[in-house]
Write a structure and sequence with these properties.
With 302 residues, this protein is mainly alpha-helical. The chain has eleven helices and two strands; from the N terminus they run ααααααααββααα. The N and C termini lie far apart (42 Å).
């Protein structure tokens, strides 16, 4: 097991909580009246008239993949040339926007922006494990509220497929994803879940065997949280478009949340300590299985 069982459960619980909160945020942005009138899922606008990209839903995965590759390349350049101020500004802006969108699902957009600003400042200049992970739980719901309306089921399947291949390559082949994770961890500006903990290990000496206490970090990349949430959100949208009642579609979408969580839990249990693993291939399989279960369930019920 990569981490202690207790830390593994905490990591899984926060992941699950982020998926649930994220799905609630996505559902809140659905315009009930227009959806009911048109029979197709319609989303309300984002706070402060933030525009969603206008792309064809069937090919949107291509643009998202390109954006991921460009973003990764830019971050590697910032690391190479040690442009810490630029990295902090980029990180701050991303956190501010996504937090504002997430919080605006529940409160007035002015209050959402104000609270998001305070949390973003605290996340960067007064980082601690509680502020960091609390904001991470919300951030991906805000991100999904941007992207879910512009993706259909075909596109999200393709997105997870290519992201999984890229994750394999980036972690096990080029290893640049490991470099990015180590850099973000060292700067305490990590995009994803971050749980430091102390672990006792046996220390062998010539005289006796003692215990060595090491500080370890349990991390889970932001993409490993965001992409399955987007898949669950697109599942919700697709079910509503197919005629499933919104409340039923909302709860059925949680099947994807459960199966992706189980897949991540299996990976963490089977993984070995001090080794990096690409999580997306396993999480993606969990998402795909969840969708198949939903189709089977609906074929029985309807």
């Amino acid at each position: 097991m990569k981490h202690t069982f207790k830390i593994t459960l905490i990591l899984i619980f926060i992941f699950l909580f982020a998926q649930i909160i994220g799905l609630v945020i996505i559902n809140t942005y659905i315009d009930s009246q227009k959806t009911q009138e048109s029979g197709e899922t319609t989303f309300t606008g984002l706070p402060f008239n933030i525009e969603r990209p206008e792309v064809d839903e069937s090919t949107s995965f291509i643009y998202i993949m390109i954006a991921v590759l460009i973003g990764t390349g830019l971050l590697l350049l910032l690391i190479k040339y040690r442009k810490m101020r630029l990295w902090k500004f980029w990180f701050f802006l991303s956190v501010l926007i996504t937090l504002t969108i997430a919080l605006a699902a529940f409160i007035n957009e002015i209050f959402a922006l104000s609270l998001a600003f305070v949390l973003a400042i605290a996340k960067i200049y007064r980082p601690n494990v509680y502020v960091h992970n609390f904001t991470e739980v919300l951030i991906y719901g805000g991100l999904a509220a941007i992207f879910v309306p512009m993706i259909n089921m075909f596109s999200v399947f393709m997105l997870l497929f290519f992201i999984s291949i890229y994750d394999f390559y980036a972690v096990w082949k080029s290893k640049h994803m490991v470099k990015l994770a180590e850099f973000q961890t060292s700067t305490k500006l990590f995009s994803g879940l971050f749980i430091p903990y102390k672990k006792e290990e046996k220390e062998k000496t010539t005289e006796k065997e003692g215990k060595l206490v090491k500080v370890k970090n349990a991390i889970l990349g932001g993409g490993d949280i965001g992409f399955p949430l987007i898949f669950a959100g697109v599942t919700l949208k697709t079910l509503i478009d197919s005629g499933v009642a919104r409340n039923i579609a909302f709860f059925e979408s949680f099947i994807v949340v459960v199966t992706s969580t189980i897949a991540l839990f299996w990976l963490l249990i089977k993984s070995k300590k001090d080794k990096f693993y690409p999580a997306m291939p396993f999480i993606s399989i969990g998402c795909f299985l969840g969708y198949v279960l939903i189709l089977l369930l609906n074929s029985i019920l309807f």
